[in-house]
UniProtKB/TrEMBL annotation:
Compositionally biased tracts (Basic residues): 68-79
Database matches in CDD domains: OTU_OTUD6-like
Feature: compositional bias, Low complexity: 58-67
OTU domain segment(s): 121-271
Basic and acidic residues compositional bias, start-end: 9-19
One Gene Ontology biological process: protein deubiquitination
Pfam families xref list: OTU
Source organism, top-level taxon: Eukaryota
UniProt-recorded Gene Ontology molecular function terms: cysteine-type deubiquitinase activity
PANTHER family for this protein: DEUBIQUITINASE OTUD6B, OTU DOMAIN CONTAINING PROTEIN
Name of the featured protein: 2539_t:CDS:1
Region (Disordered): 1-36, 57-79
Amino acid sequence: MKQTQQQAKKIESSEKAPIEENQNNENENISDDNEDIVDKLLAKIEAKRVEEEKIAASKVSVSSNKVPKSKKPNRQKLRKARKAAEMAELQREVENEAKNQPNMNEVEREKIKEIVTTMGLSIKEIKPDGHWQVFLAFQYKIYLYNAISDQLQIKHNIMTDYKELRRKTAAYMRENPDDFIPFLPTKDDGICSPEQFSKYCDELENTAVWGGQLEIIAISKTFKLPVHLIQMNSPLMKISDDEFLNKEPITISFHRHMYGLGAHYNSLRKI
């Protein structure tokens, strides 16, 4: 009986062994299949990741191409900007220096006022005659003829204007060239030629050319009147005073700083 039971167990165990082996083989096959599936899924995921990276990289490349390239600095513009900055700095320095300088217009005005007051005179400011000219690279308003015109009217009852004075001054100089040619400057510092003198007189009569001491002498000779000229830091200038005795002089003042760079003449009247 016991032997029979033992044989039965052997048979049972021998029958179970192939079944378990088959089950193990099946499990191994299932495991292999699962691994294949996982590998395929991982491969797909990896392929998708690579594809996405390529797409992202291409977008970045396109985007970077759209960004404008930075331009190189323009050297000429930089030089101009630097020069402008230097000029602005120089202008500030000039302005700061000018603030510390005396106002020459005020200084000159006070000096001349002191002189004429002691002479019993006052300054009659003369309006411009509308003429301008470039002299030694500066612009000068021509007040000389208006100042003398005012003096002729109030002292000698002679009615005239700057145009008539210019015409008469030029006429006198043409009639007496030897009195003026030696004193006229030329571009080459030589002696003024007759042609140059003729041109000078024409410009004096017909343009706004500057009038100075030579023209004052010509006016004095034309009207046979002495002329007294007052200016800052200079003695009283008397023109034709010895020649035309006992005649009331034309009295004018010369202002170098009254209108910035412009020379100016005023008429001096009795107080």
